[in-house]
Write a structure and sequence with these properties.
This protein is α+β, with helices and mostly antiparallel strands and 567 residues long. Helix content is 51%, strand content 11%. The strands form four sheets. Strands 11-13-12-14-15-16 form a six-stranded mixed sheet, sandwiched between helices. It has a four-stranded antiparallel sheet with strand order 1-2-3-4. A hairpin with a 5-residue loop joins strand 3 (23-26) and strand 4. The relative contact order is 0.08. Bound molecules: zinc ion. Zinc ion binds next to loops.
C-alpha cells in the first residue's frame, strides 16, 4: 500500500506499507521499520512507551518479566491516579461548555480568538467556584481524600479542612507526551483571586520543570517540521495550533529548564524561541542557551515585536503569516545575544567597549571555528571600532560560554531525565537516491538473499566485508544471524533496522533469480578487486598488482558472459 509519507513533506506518495511483513518504508526519506518503530517515530516515544501505548490501544496485556510486587502495586496505583486526573479534566471541560457560571470564561476565550475546536482538542475547562466540587465528586467516585491530595486537586486549610485547589479558573490540563493528564494550569477569572496563574503543586506526578505544555499534540508536527517552536503561555500554544503552527509547545514558566531541553533534544535538533521581547523573555532566551549548550541542538530566536505575544498576533488578520515569517527568519541565539550586548553598549566610552568585548568573547568562542563566528567577529569589530584580528584574538583566548561539561565543579546537569526517550525523526538510513552504484548493487544482492534464502545462504557466506559498504556489511551479518525471517524481529539499532527493513521490502518488490544474484556478486567482486589493485599500487607492489589485474580481466569476461545469460 502506498501513501504520503508522514515523516517528510511530499506531494507524490513514496511511503509504502507491506501488511504481510508488517513493515513500512519510504523511498523518499528512507524512514522504515515495523509497527513499534512507526509509533516510536510518529509519536516521539521510546521503545517501551511505544509498546505500552500499542498495548493500551488494542487491549493487549503486556507480560512483564519478573516485576516485583511493590513495583506492580505502584504501577496499578499510578494508573488509578491517572484515571482520577482524566476524569477531573473531563469534568472541568464539560463545566466550561455547559455551566452558566463559566459564561465569562467562554467570552474571554472567544475574545482571545480561540475557537471551540481547539479548546476542545486541548480539553480546556473551567473549575467551579464552589470549595468542594472536586472533593465531593472525587470521593463519590471512590477516590480517597489522600488520593485527591496526592494529585494536587485538593489542599488543606489551616484548620485542617480539605478544599478544592482550583476554583473559578480556566483550566488547562497539562499532559505528557503520551497524552496523559498529569496536572493543571488554572487562570484566574476574578480580579480578587490573587495569583493570575496557579499550577498543580509539585506532586509525585507533576514535575513542572519536566513538562512542556502541548507536547502531546505537537510531537507529530515537531517530527515532521524538524523543529519545535517554544512560546510562553497556554493561550499562545492554543492560538498557534489553531493557526496551523502545530509544532508549538510552551515551557511551564518564563525560563526553560534542563529537563525541558532534554525532552526536546530527544525529539528534534532545532528549537525556535518565540518569547516576549521584554527583559524577562530575553533572560529566558539566554538561560535557554546555557542549558542547550553541550547538547546537539540548534537554538534560534524569532524576533517578536515588543509587547505582542503570539496569541495577540494570531488574532490579527495575516498574523499567522507574519508569525511564520518570524520563525523562518529566526536568528541563532548567539547572534541574538551579541546583538543585545552591542545595542546596550555606549560606544563612546572605552570602558563600556571593553566590557562589551569581555561579554561577547565567550559567546563567540562557544561557536567554535565557523563562518557564523567570523561574521559576528566582523560585526563586533565594526561596532566597537576595533581591529577584527584583535577581537578574534580575544575570542580565541576566551573560554567558551557553553563549555559542555561543568568544569568548575558546579552541579551536574540533569541529563538523566527524559534523555533519549525519543528518537530523531525519520532519516534512519541513506535515502536510496543517494546510494552509490556499489551500495545499490549490494542492497539488490542482499535483498535477493532474503527472497531466495536457499541460494542466499551461499552468497552470504561468500560475501566478505571487503565486498560491502559499512552498512551493507552490518546488514549482511544480521542476515547471517537471522536466517529465514529477518523482518519478524528487527534490530534495536535504528540505522541497521532501517537498512534491514529496506532490504525486506526490496525483496518483496523486485524479482530475484540465481542469475541476477551471480551477476551482482561478480560485480561486487570486481569492485573488491579494484580496491585491492589500488592498494597494491599504493604499496608499489607491482607484481601483486599485475596478478590482480589478470584476475580482474578474467572476472570481466565472466561478468560479460553472465550479462548475456541474464538478458
Ligand atoms: Zn518519507
Amino acid at each position: 500500500m502506498m501513501g504520503l509519507c508522514p515523516f517528510h513533506d511530499e506531494r507524490t506518495p513514496s511511503f509504502s506499507v507491506n501488511p504481510e511483513d508488517k513493515l513500512y518504508y519510504c523511498h523518499g526519506c528512507g524512514a522504515g521499520g515495523d509497527v513499534i518503530k512507526f509509533v516510536e517515530e510518529k509519536e516521539g516515544l521510546g521503545f517501551a512507551e511505544a509498546v505500552e501505548m500499542l498495548a493500551d490501544r488494542y487491549g493487549v496485556e503486556i507480560q512483564r518479566e519478573q516485576e516485583d510486587p511493590r513495583a506492580e502495586a505502584r504501577r496499578v496505583q499510578r494508573r488509578r491516579l491517572e484515571q482520577l486526573l482524566d476524569r477531573t479534566a473531563a469534568y472541568y471541560a464539560a463545566y466550561l461548555w455547559d455551566s452558566e457560571e463559566a459564561g465569562r470564561a467562554r467570552e474571554y476565550l472567544a475574545e482571545r480568538g480561540l475557537g471551540e475546536e481547539v479548546l476542545r482538542a486541548f480539553s480546556v475547562g473551567y473549575a467551579p467556584s464552589a470549595w468542594d466540587k472536586i472533593l465531593v465528586r472525587g470521593q463519590q467516585a471512590g477516590f480517597s481524600v489522600a488520593e485527591l491530595h496526592g494529585v494536587g486537586l485538593v489542599q488543606r486549610s489551616r484548620e485542617s479542612k480539605e478544599y478544592d485547589r482550583f476554583r473559578s479558573r480556566i483550566m488547562f490540563p497539562i499532559r505528557d507526551r503520551r497524552g496523559r493528564t498529569l496536572g493543571f494550569g488554572g487562570r484566574a477569572m476574578r480580579s480578587d483571586q490573587g495569583a493570575k496563574y496557579v499550577n498543580t503543586a509539585e506532586t509525585d506526578f507533576f514535575h513542572k520543570s519536566q513538562l512542556l505544555y502541548g507536547v502531546d499534540r505537537a510531537k507529530a508536527a515537531i517530527a515532521k517540521a524538524g523543529r519545535a517552536v517554544l512560546v510562553e503561555g497556554y493561550t499562545d500554544v492554543l492560538a498557534l495550533h489553531q493557526a496551523g503552527v502545530e509544532e508549538t509547545v510552551a515551557a511551564m514558566g518564563t525560563s526553560i529548564t534542563d529537563e525541558q531541553v532534554a525532552t526536546l533534544s530527544g525529539m528534534v535538533d532545532e528549537v525556535v524561541l518565540a518569547l516576549d521581547a521584554d527583559s524577562a523573555g530575553q533572560e529566558a532566551m539566554l538561560r535557554a542557551q546555557r542549558v542547550a549548550s553541550g547538547r546537539r541542538m540548534r537554538l534560534r530566536v524569532a524576533k517578536m515585536p515588543a509587547g505582542v505575544d503570539p496569541a495577540e498576533m494570531m488574532a490579527d488578520p495575516g498574523g499567522a503569516e507574519r508569525f511564520r515569517d518570524l520563525v523562518e527568519s529566526a536568528i541563532d541565539v548567539a547572534d541574538f545575544q551579541v546583538g543585545l550586548v552591542l545595542a546596550a553598549t555606549d560606544v563612546a566610552s572605552p570602558a563600556a567597549r571593553d566590557r562589551a568585548l569581555a561579554e561577547v568573547a565567550p559567546v563567540l568562542a562557544g561557536l567554535g571555528e565557523s563562518a557564523s563566528r567570523d561574521e559576528l567577529v566582523r560585526r563586533v569589530a565594526e561596532r566597537l571600532d576595533l581591529e577584527p584580528a584583535m577581537v578574534m584574538g580575544r575570542v580565541v583566548a576566551a573560554t567558551p560560554a557553553s563549555g559542555g561539561e561543568d568544569a568548575g565543579g558546579g552541579p551536574a546537569r540533569a541529563t538523566a531525565v527524559a534523555r533519549g526517550t525519543g528518537s530523531a525523526p525519520a532519516q534512519m538510513t541513506t535515502p536510496p537516491a543517494q546510494l552509490t552504484s556499489r551500495e545499490r548493487r549490494e542492497r539488490a544482492l542482499l535483498a535477493m538473499c532474503i527472497a531466495l534464502p536457499e541460494e542466499g545462504r551461499g552468497y552470504l557466506s561468500r560475501l566478505t566485508d571487503a565486498h560491502l559498504s559499512a552498512s551493507g556489511a552490518r546488514a549482511a551479518s544480521w542476515l547471517r544471524e537471522h536466517p529465514g525471517d529477518p523482518a519478524s524481529n528487527l534490530p534495536q539499532d535504528p540505522e541497521l533496522a532501517g537498512v534491514v527493513t529496506e532490504l525486506v521490502m526490496l525483496a518483496r518488490a523486485e524479482p530475484a533469480s540465481q542469475e541476477a544474484m551471480e551477476l551482482n556478486f561478480l560485480q561486487l567482486e570486481q569492485r573488491r578487486l579494484e580496491d585491492e589493485i589500488a592498494a597494491a599500487g599504493e604499496r608499489d607492489d607491482y607484481e601483486r598488482r599485475a596478478a590482480l589485474s589478470r584476475e580482474r580481466a578474467a572476472l570481466v569476461e565472466r561478468i560479460a558472459h553472465a550479462e548475456r545469460v541474464g538478458s
